[in-house]
Queue: 3 jobs
Job 1
Amino acid sequence: MAKIYYDADANLDLIKDKTVGIIGFGSQGHAHALNLRDNGCNVMVGLYPGSKSWQHAQMAGLRVGTVEEMAREADVIMMLAPDQLQKKIYDESIGPALTAGKMIMFAHGFNIHFNQIVPPPDVDVTMIAPKAPGHRMREMFVNGIGVPALIAVHQNATENAQQLALAYGKGVGCTKAGVIETTFDEETETDLFGEQVVLCGGVTALVKTAFEILVQAGYQPEIAYFECMHELKLLVDLMHEGGMTYMRYSISDTAEYGDYTRGPKVIDDHVRQSMKQILANIRSGAFAREWIIENQAGRPSFLALRRQNAEHPIEKVGKELRDMMPWLGKRD
């Protein structure tokens, strides 16, 4: 069973006498910074000069400086920049300021696990990874509720890294819900696998392929969109609220029978073997090397794939149909 830590396991005072630096003020960055500030911590946000977030952070009442200034001053540094930017930020602005006894933290283990960032041995390296988007994390905190998170210790130079990371977890409100112990390896590999085979890659490929099959068979694109894309949210919401059993309780018996008998024909042994190969590529570092090289080359394949997928007929049909649903708001 997983080890889970709660408020009683964390001492917020451990972090209150330190300066906590937050790199970035996007979805996660703003939530971490504001939650820590509201819990009485001394927070400084590090941004690049000219960042559009600079004024937003200042207007929120936070102290802001360049990443270099923040790194020199902070005792605890949380890296919340995108994966592909972290190595450059670290090499140029963070690494030179990491003196003995400081702690650098991450919300995702990619750059540590795949050795893109290698901190010196005399600093702590830890993770607090909230399992919710930043806006939800902030919303729950304001309402006196936390969101679950993961905790991991990669390097324990001070022999107090886990307790300090737990204090950070309490500062951002996550120990109210529970913080689950993991490792950088486990968090990184399972996160990439989930994204690729289910949450992003698997779902979008399944939806697009089903849409294409129906349209090619002569059905109207609008009907195919509703059946393969629009209604997906209804089922995911049910699973989110009560698991697969609750979802199956809420649908028709016809749909439930089709679930049990046809689902395994879609996700068959061939798909299972493909998933295992994807996991093997993640664990070996092959995917990481591919993504790193892609970014070094200026992202030609990534940008081409983004453009091609944005032009897929399901996106055109979907935009027209979503215009019939004003309650959704505009997301273009």
Job 2
Amino acid sequence: MKITGGVVTYNNKKTIDRCISSVLKMNIDKDYDFRLYVYDNGSTDGTPELIESKYPEVKLIRDNANKGFGAGHNAIIKRVKSDYHFVINPDIYLDENTVEELTKVLEKDESIGLITPRIMNNDGTEQFLPKYCPTVRYVFVSKIPGFKYLRRRYTRQEENLNEPTEIEFCTGCFFGARTSYLKRLKGFSNRYFMYCEDSDLSRRVRAQGKKIIFYPDVTAYHNWQRDNTGNLRGIYRFVKSLLVYFKKWGFQF
């Protein structure tokens, strides 16, 4: 049984070392053959040089330009020849056999399209990523003082999801799937450079009648520092992607 993992980087030298180290240290059962791929989107901070020197067992694919999150993962998905594949952010790290456990769940149920674990912050608090699909109310109105309850509803943080649960949205920071299924989907839509590509993928998976499973029995840690409202470029990219998403799937309040 072959398992692959894919990481897309762009100037992630500060986090990629811990990510790769933790993934490669997993004590995956001898019945599974695991290989990690890294696609570098033209980093200038020494990220690919670090990987080449420290992790020769990693398959590094270097590009000379930043073509985006989805494009990088799609390039990996096209190359891999495995039974199961995991999409992994460069700021993810693992401290248990999360990949193997999720693979076992996928093996037992062919109706599962995507599976994601509980995602934690570095301090052990939960990130509440099994959200509902984005709507105008959840994404914009929830940021207005007095409407913060919509954010809590959107992220389902008051639902106490402590058992495997079918969900609407699968975060792009860490998930697994059958490789053959990801290839049939052709990975992420090329309409998105960054942001909302995971929302779009989730909608396509569910539209095909496949399930998205949140599996909280295992975890992954996400050193999340991205703020899509922290600068004008981030705001522009986020709003642009959201408009593409709404145009495709319909505006919902």
Job 3
Amino acid sequence: MKKYLFTSESVTEGHPDKLCDLISDTILDKCLEQDEYSRVAIETFASNDKITIAGQLSSNAKIDIEKIARQVLKDIGYRGKGIDIDYENCVIDVNITKQSSDIAQGVDVGGAGDQGIMFGYANAETEEYMPFAISLAHKLSKKLTEVRKSGILPYLGPDGKTQVTVEYENYTPKRIETILVSNQHDENIPLEKVRQDIIEKVIKAVVDSKYLDENTKYYVNPTGRFVIGGPLGDTGLTR
């Protein structure tokens, strides 16, 4: 029998990198709503209490980029107060130009602006045709956001990360070796409560018990404290 471990990671919507993705994606969506021929190459950078939005944009759409960015921050649930970014008062620097005429001359005739090469494949491990580990990691991240926004665990902050290690046997998922969850939380909440709540209301609510056993390891906020989050805790960049 061939046995091996495979690990995948996911992040919540409040993670600095995901924040940047959401701002760039929302700008694209708003442009396409008004002009399906929009050309949008937007990069977002987040650090401390500042958001920088730069890139090239050629579109007939009329959008307010700063307003879009602040709405994304608000929708995520950032609270400011020195623990994460302040959506109302943070600095937003917009530096966007039109697409280069040199690039446009190739795109105008049907070419691609970027020659990116990507590969991937679907598999039958999950209903969404994604590998089992990344599917579970994504579901855990979504559940963290759900329990925060619904008020089940209102003391959680928007920044978080999940990691799942699956043991395979003959290329089939058999059990979960390790689940790691790190999530921002209010300062006055004891670590033991954070760990207990996340195991009971997030992990066990998402993961089928048949993959868990007495040897499954749980690491919840293993560093012991995660109060400062978002761009105040780490730099984010559109990936």
